[in-house]
Each structure stands twice: as structure tokens, then as C-alpha cells.
Amino acid sequence: MNIILLGPPGAGKGTQAKHLTNTFGLKQLSTGDMLRAAIEGGSNLGKQVQLIVDAGDLVPDNIMIEMITTRITRADCAGGFILDGFPRTVLQAETLHEVLSLKKIKIDHVIALDVKLDSLLGRIRNRALEAPEDQRRQDDDEKTLKHRLSVYKEQTAPVLPYYEKLGVLKTLDGMLTPDEVSKKINEVLAE
Ligand code: AMP
Q1: How close is the Cα of 191 to the center of ligand 1, in Å?
Q2: Which of 41, 113, 116, 141 is 20 to 30 A from 174 via CA?
Q3: Is 148 a residue of the active site?
Q4: Cα dihedral 124, 126, 128, 130 sign
Q5: Given 18, 71, 125, 137, the catalytic residue
């Protein structure tokens, strides 16, 4: 089973991806985590993307598409994967669709977590406060977060109608508690 989780920063995609990993053994592919690991590791890719990620902008589509299409075909994804943080533009969604069709890989569910955008600042503030200091994200400060939300509205929100047109989008209330959202996700997967 392959799943795409969509939603703005702070919507709970990471938390729900972990739930899906624990419950169904699916591999979580978080593009944000991959980029942060590349930055931490000091690779060429990391150097190339650091300023972009720190500023809360989107890494260019070609880099992200290459990263995720290579990753998806690795053996540990054969039992199913969750895309968390990808696609973030319509071009990424369209290219993913083409690449997966060629590889005969099917996306079974596209789930969007719907949250009030004005509640996200508070959520992410809490995430920053709760994280141990050495794990605090550079891009979880107030100014960058506001920018990430505007990037989401402009570039990522149009991905939702893309999947809606394909008839595969399920939108869930992301304002519920994490456990309630997990339950709703389980119901969608059982349909
Ligand atoms: P996240 O952990 O998903 O919030 O991602 C953190 C940051 O990584 C984003 O603000 C972007 O700078 C970058 N990023 C992650 N995924 C993508 C993507 N699919 N396309 C472009 N940039 C991305």
C-alpha cells in the first residue's frame, strides 16, 4: 500500500506517517528529513539546498523529483511507502504520476489533512518548544514559518485540486487529536 500525505507545515503529516509505519509497516519517506540529513552530512546536495531550506523556500523541482524517484524504487519501499512532504508543487505531482506509471507503481490513497492555517503558528511554536535544543529546526522560527505558510498557499495548495480531479483525494479534519486523525486514516484505508 502506497500513500501520499498532504497538508501544510504543522498539519501532523509526520505524526500520521509514523502511525502508518507502526501500524502497517510502511516506509516513511519524508523529503524534509532527507534534506536535513543531507545538510547535516555536509554532502554536495546538502550544501546546495541549505540556504533554501533554512529560508523556508522550496528546493527546485528537478532536485526533489530526482531524490524521491530514486528513493521510491529502493528495496525497503517494496512493502509500501508513505510520501510525507512530497509532492509540494503541481509539477512534482505530475512528474511523480508519470514516473510511477512507467514503473507500474500505484498510489493507493492520497490523504490531505485539513487544518486552519491560523492555528499552525501555535502548533509549530509548540513543536519548537518541545524539541530538544539540538533537534530544533532552523526553519521553525516565527518569520520563516510565516513564509513557509505563504509558500504552501501559493505553490502546494494547488496540488489538492490536482488529486481531486483524479478522484483519489480524501480530505480529513486535521484539527482533531492525533489519535482521532489516525482512526480516520484507518477508516479510509479500510474502504
Ligand atoms: P518539511 O520537513 O516537510 O516541512 O520540509 C522542510 C523543508 O524542506 C521545506 O520547507 C522545503 O524547504 C524543503 N522541502 C521538503 N520537501 C520538499 C519538496 N517536495 N519540494 C521542495 N522543497 C521541499
Answers
A1: 30
A2: 141
A3: yes
A4: negative
A5: 137
